Amino acid sequence: MATQLKNLSDFSNTEIPSAQPYRFGIVVAEWNAEITNALYHGAYQSLVNNGALPENISVYPVPGSFELTSGADLLLKKGGLDAVICLGCVIQGETRHFDFICDAVANGVSNVAIKYSKPVIFGVLTTDNQQQAIDRAGGKHGNKGDEAAITAIKMAHLAETLKS
Ligand SMILES: Nc1c(NC[C@H](O)[C@H](O)[C@H](O)CO)[nH]c(=O)[nH]c1=O
Ligand SMILES: CC(=O)[C@@H](O)COP(=O)(O)O
């Protein structure tokens, strides 16, 4: 379902577990910072609104979305987290660089999640232009950071239930 048909911040039809027991790491790309900062604020507020303790939320900037994978890997190697949220914004430029970054981050994030058996959330906008990014970072289509946070809570809860 396209984002145009499902607002990224609408979770009225879903049950969200309490985030209170969980510790979250958030890795944020500095490229397109006006967008990624909005994603971060959305993610942080969504975690707190669902019970996460501020002291259990840690944030780590990385230069670009390509570095989100290694940022998540370093965080999980360090330990002590129940989920990692990766936030970035990749906007198509003149060359095929966009394709390589998007593929690398999507595959990289998935591989890190499997490597550590921990939820690693792909909160990365991959857009044709700046306006599409604005629309998905608190604009008319909601905030991808909200979606990433709720996903992290649900996956951390699932991991906890399967562990016990
Ligand atoms: N063009 C975008 C980039 N490019 C930078 C890469 O992510 C990476 O930091 C660089 O290739 C060095 O390894 N990053 C974004 O997050 N968004 C872009 O639109
Ligand atoms: C996604 C990118 O790396 C891209 O924004 C860089 O722009 P260009 O493809 O014009 O070099």
TrEMBL record:
Annotated catalytic residues: 97 (proton donor)
Positions that bind 5-amino-6-(D-ribitylamino)uracil: 31, 65-67, 89-91, 122
Reactions accelerated catalytically: (2S)-2-hydroxy-3-oxobutyl phosphate + 5-amino-6-(D-ribitylamino)uracil = 6,7-dimethyl-8-(1-D-ribityl)lumazine + phosphate + 2 H2O + H(+)
EC number: 2.5.1.78
Cross-referenced InterPro entries: LS, LS/RS, LS/RS_sf
GO cellular component terms attached to this protein's record: cytosol; riboflavin synthase complex
Pathway recorded for this protein: Cofactor biosynthesis; riboflavin biosynthesis; riboflavin from 2-hydroxy-3-oxobutyl phosphate and 5-amino-6-(D-ribitylamino)uracil: step 1/2
Stated family: Belongs to the DMRL synthase family.
HAMAP family according to UniProt: Lumazine_synth
Stated role: Catalyzes the formation of 6,7-dimethyl-8-ribityllumazine by condensation of 5-amino-6-(D-ribitylamino)uracil with 3,4-dihydroxy-2-butanone 4-phosphate. This is the penultimate step in the biosynthesis of riboflavin.
Record's protein name: 6,7-dimethyl-8-ribityllumazine synthase
Gene source species: Mucilaginibacter lappiensis
Chain's gene name: ribH
